[in-house]
Amino acid sequence: MSDKQEPNGKASATNITDQERDLAQQALAEYEKKNYKSCLEHLQRIEETRPNDPKVLLNKAIVEFYESGLCTADKFQKSFIDVCKQVELNLEQLDSLEDVENCIYYYNYAVFLYHLKHYTKALAMINKVYSFIESLEESLAHKVCLLIVQLHIDTNKHAEALKLITYIESQFVSTDNATNILTGSADQGGPIHAETEKTEKKANLDAATDAFRVSLIQYRVRSLMELNLFDECSQQLNTIKEKQDSITMFLIGKLEYLRGNHKEALAILKEIPVKDDFIETGECSSVLINNNVACLYHYAKKPTLSFTSIYKAIVQHQKNIVDVTKPTQAEGSLSGQPLHIIGASIKTELMFNLGISLLHARKPEEAFDCLIEAVQTYHMNPRLWLRLAECCIMTHKKSNDRDFDFKKPYIEGVVGSGKHRKIILKSQLFPDTKYSCEAVSASIPMPSLEFGSLCIRNAVLLIQNDTIDCSPSHTPINTPHKDYLFGCIQSAGAYIALCLGDPVVALKYSQELLKSDKINKVHKFLGHLYAAEALILSDKPNEAIDMLKESNAFDDIEPEIHEQLRTEQWKPDKQKSAKAVLYYNLAVALTLRGDLDKAGELLKQIWLSKIEHVSVPVHVVILALYIHLRLGQKEIAITLIKQNCPQAKR
């Protein structure tokens, strides 16, 4: 957790005796050997003569915490706060830190908060400690520097992290400067060390400084990646490539992934050695590798392989958690698991990735179960609420393919024979497209349209914030992505409202969508279609016709939107098919207004496009039958039935 403050520092009450100094040195030696029981015995002997020394009490609390395997976090937190009260420190009031000697208390508590993932609070505390950085002992200063950079990255303050790293390197990575701090210079005075002792310290310093330098470079690469400065990332990684440690290899693999070089990234991941050091570090390389491989499969449009890899990662992670969890009689929600394991648990992030993979694999019910667990932690993420709504939509209707399948039978049955033979058409092509009439509570988490509408409302509220929480992703949502997300949310909200038979809400979502001049052409087209349908349901066919005439079916659609339609498996997926859907909706509106001739002409245009292998909605046939029968064109209606209904030929 932190360096144990050596008990032979400045005494809080009286001078330290030689015996106490020896005990303190022995305790420190045992602590460094991880012989915590023996270390605790030495500290207890010191405590007998110095019962109110806060440094002794702090060290005792830390050693007891380590002896428990870091599994009694609640007890340690209480003991730690009691020690702080003794020295009149209020950890909630950062201005109370005025003495450099008290920095160790704030540093330890900042580490404690970091492991509990209270990053904002921990950052405020370590910022206060950092103001004393030049007066801190070297090893503690290094730890403070690494923690403050880590917390800036965890709070998405990457530009500030880069500035910090540059300053820290100038102050602490210079070997000459660091040597003076550790061994003492002639200007500082102090005891004259033997040459062998100074040489040994110099060698240890060089190794520590080099490790510190590599860590700073790795942090710099992480920040540069989030700022999309990939060329600078490559330059930095080239300086530490020879190290070939797992962290550097993960960073190299991620850089290739971000550049779109998925094969190169996969090759690098396969070279990373698998280490089982979860108990010591809280991280398992096999879990991280499987998760990263899943991300590569996801962007390679292989969702089945993606969720298979993610599932392996979850199983391994859960096994690791069970292995380190100890039964304990200590009370408190934080007891039972080592502190660093509590903070290192990535089950929620893995469940989020698994949910996204399952959604893309068209398994919405399973995806919903995963994402509903993730949203309990990341409830401020509007994109996550949208994904839950998409699970509800896909559960209701997996795709539009059947709407364009002309093999779908239109006939319910045939009665009679000969000239008395009668054909019974289906009253509804797709029974499950009826509006929901069951009493389903929107507050119950289940993949229903009612709950989906609640998810959309949450997303609408959250996307209005100036700063959008995109957790668990570290990449902030920029303006173009925010505009696209806005279009997705509004169009999904309109669709759900229409399915629930609520045209007022659907029209509201559609109008909000069409007000924006930054949405792409696909969402704008959907906005016109949904708004027109809402107006028709509100018995306003004239307004619906005007709305549909405003849409140009993205005649000037950009090439990248064509690619989006193809890769995301939208239906309709071509401009002409979209125009056919538009004309069909317009024909429906005209029919409701009584303009049957105009509606018939539109249907002819749609049918001619079908000859050109353009996908058109199957509802066209039913609407054409209705119009021909209303116009008294019985023979044409019969011919249409024979052409499209095989049962009619029998």
From TrEMBL:
Keyword Endoplasmic reticulum: no
Record keyword Nuclease present: no
GO biological process: mRNA catabolic process; negative regulation of translation; regulatory ncRNA-mediated gene silencing
Gene3D superfamilies registered for this protein in UniProt: Tetratricopeptide repeat domain
InterPro entries according to UniProt: CNOT10, TPR-like_helical_dom_sf, TPR_rpt
GO cellular component assignments: CCR4-NOT complex; cytoplasm; nucleus
Family, as annotated: Belongs to the CNOT10 family.
Organism field: Aphis gossypii (Cotton aphid)
Protein name: CCR4-NOT transcription complex subunit 10
Primary location: cytoplasm
Protein role: Component of the CCR4-NOT complex which is one of the major cellular mRNA deadenylases and is linked to various cellular processes including bulk mRNA degradation, miRNA-mediated repression, translational repression during translational initiation and general transcription regulation.
Keywords tagged on the record: Cytoplasm, Nucleus, RNA-mediated gene silencing, Transcription, Transcription regulation, Translation regulation
Localization, UniProt: Cytoplasm; Nucleus
